[in-house]
Amino acid sequence: MNIILLGYMGCGKSSIGKDLASKLEMKCLDLDDYIETQEKKSINQIFEDKGEIYFRKKENLYLKEALETQNNTIISLGGGTPCFVGNLEIIKNNENAKSVYLKTSLQELVNRLFLEKGKRPLIAHVSSKDDLKDFIRKHLFERSFYYNQAEYVISTDDKAVEEIATEIKNTLF
Predict the structure, then answer these.
(1) From the centroid of its chain, how far is CA 96?
(2) In what order do the strands lie in the sheet containing 73-76?
(3) CB-based contacts of 37: which residues, under 8 Å, 6+ apart?
(4) In a 3-state reduction of DSSP, which class is residue 124?
(5) Beta bridge partners of 99
(6) 48-63: per-residue pLDDT in tens?
(7) Were 165 and a residue from 5, 19, 139, 151 both cysteine, which residue would form a disulfide, CB within 3.0 to 4.6 Å?
(8) Domain membership of residue 106 as a residue range
């Protein structure tokens, strides 16, 4: 079985994925890292050089590849992955995958992401916390439809990575 972690950027998918993989003695695959390895470019470079449409097509290709080739793996998706190119249907129709939405409040996302916005191509241009809050609010409104179709929803607010990973483990097993 594969466990698919989804949610907005900054919700902790990568960190929680690593901890959960350790707890469950599973492999861990971060889809963004996988894309960077396959494309031999950072996500930022891909966005700059080829644009978001190219990136989303490659993201779809590598998601399918990961689901076909990986087993017993925690797969952490990019924040937009479930929202594009039928990716959510691919996940939902995969018999060997369980999906978990890591739900994080708007204010918590603003606090986390403002400190690291330079590393995130979609928000690198945002200059104030208020602007970031508006940006995330709009995205969450658009994306929550997709995120909430996950089989399980786990709240991440005010919880440590280890606590969330344990909650996922206890929920799934």
Answers:
(1) 18
(2) 27-30, 73-76, 2-6, 97-103, 152-155
(3) none
(4) coil
(5) 4
(6) 899 989 999 999 999 9
(7) 19
(8) 2-172
The token duo for 74 is 């925690």
pLDDT in tens, 94-147: 999 999 999 999 999 999 999 888 778 788 889 999 999 999 999 999 999 999
Burial class (CB in 10 A: 0-12, 13-18, 19+), 50: middle
Question: Collapsing DSSP states into helix, strand and coil, what is residue 115?
Answer: coil
Q: CA 74, CA 107: separation in Å to the nearest integer? A: 27
What is the number of domains present in the chain? 1
**For position 54, which CATH number holds?**
3.40.50.300
Cα 79 to Cα 43: distance, rounded to the nearest angstrom:
13
Q: What is the pTM of this model?
A: 0.93
Burial degree of 30 (CB within 10 A; 0-12, 13-18, 19+) = buried
Residue with tokens 């709240």: 155
Average pLDDT over residues 14-36: 96
- CA angle 49–50–52, rounded 5-degree value: 120
Q: How far is 127 from 49, CA to CA, in rounded Å?
A: 23
The per-residue DSSP string of 129-158 comes to HHHHHHHHHHHHHHHHHHHTTSSEEEE-TT
Helix axes 161-172, 13-24, angle to 10 degrees: 60
